[in-house]
Amino acid sequence: MILVLRALGVGDLATAVPALRALRAGHPGEELVLAAPAWLGPLVELVGGVDRLLPTDDLGPPPWPVPPSAGRSSPGAPPWSGPPPEVAVNLHGRGPRSHRMLAGAGRLVAFRCPSAGHRDGPDWDDDEHEVDRWCRLLDWYGIPADRTDLALHRPPAGRLPAGVTVVHPGSKVEAKRWPADRFAALARRLADRGHRVVVTGSAGERELAARVAAGAGLPGS
Fold first, then answer.
1. What whole-number distance in Å separates Cα of residue 101 and Cα of residue 79?
2. Beta partners for 35?
3. CA-CA distance, 149 to 169, in Å (whole number)?
4. Which of 44, 66, 77, 140 lies at 20 to 30 Å from 221 by C-alpha?
5. Do residues 80 and 63 lie in contact, with contact meaning Cβ atoms separated by under 8 Å?
6. 140, 132 Cβ separation under 8 angstroms
7. d(Cα 187, Cα 88) in Å, to the nearest integer?
8. What is the pTM of this model?
9. Per-residue pLDDT tens digits for 61-90
């Protein structure tokens, strides 16, 4: 079984799609478990190839039992049954916390982090694009990944709108946000070209999303 750690948000999951698919292709007979926030479940289904989602909202101690000699316990860790995974893949960060959360796995696929006791793997590059970063990590371990394999599967017909163009102006880091008026201009241009545009955001981003929709001339709904 392979456990992949990516306990982050929507954009973070999107940039990990090529790496997740590479792991699936490289280990077709293994169960692939993704440790990520539970609310990402519907998007994880559109990635394809992930057998199970392990709800994980934050970094902590390993979710599996560890021997008393390790000097750590696992209160509040996500539910886990059975022995630690044969392979743990850190697509979350450079360590050391994320590396330590995966301690005890049979093999750790991760960037080099001596402070976490992991001297294997390539060196981290702060300036690297996220998609390239995770593809390079897997390539270092002999797992080829296609950085262009980013498209999500189309969701089945249901209560959610399908065939739409999604504009998402929010970000958990406000400094990373593109200005709202630029999002509005983009949404307006897309609508003028015949796209059915929807604007998304978290509860805390409702005002921002409404401002973008209004600036683009989209209906309030």
1. 14
2. 5, 54
3. 24
4. 44
5. yes
6. no
7. 40
8. 0.79
9. 888 776 544 444 444 455 677 789 999 999
